[in-house]
Design a protein that fits this description.
5-stranded antiparallel beta sheet
């Protein structure tokens, strides 16, 4: 019984590790912050020359409403294609760290409120 539960836990941990943000991307600098999240520039780990930047919104997932809102934002924006809408690329939910990472298209320029 204990061995079976331990194996399930190890399998679940391995599954989470493979879907973590840090296995695919590396953070660069902070480019913005809000009440519930911070936004960073990031690059794929394989992009050694840093040619294709992305933006990642990092949100604490300590609130079920925030989790649902982030999932909905991702589901909606990943399918939209318009020059005035930033496209979502991937969503990572890291249960171990208690964070959600929403990887998005990076747009150079000033903030909307500036």
């Amino acid at each position: 019984m204990i061995k079976r539960s331990s194996k399930k836990l190890v399998d679940r941990h391995s599954e989470l590790k493979l879907t973590q943000f840090s296995t695919k991307y590396v953070l660069d600098n902070k480019i913005g912050e809000g009440m519930h999240s911070n936004v960073y520039k990031c690059y794929k780990i394989s992009d050694i020359e840093k040619t294709q930047p992305y933006a990642v919104k990092v949100t604490r997932d300590d609130d079920e409403e925030k989790k649902i809102a982030n999932r909905n934002e991702y589901k909606i924006s990943k399918n939209l294609l318009h020059r005035n809408i930033v496209k979502s690329i991937e969503l990572f939910e890291n249960e171990i760290e208690g964070e959600m990472h929403l990887v998005m298209q990076y747009v150079e320029g000033i903030e909307v409120l500036d």
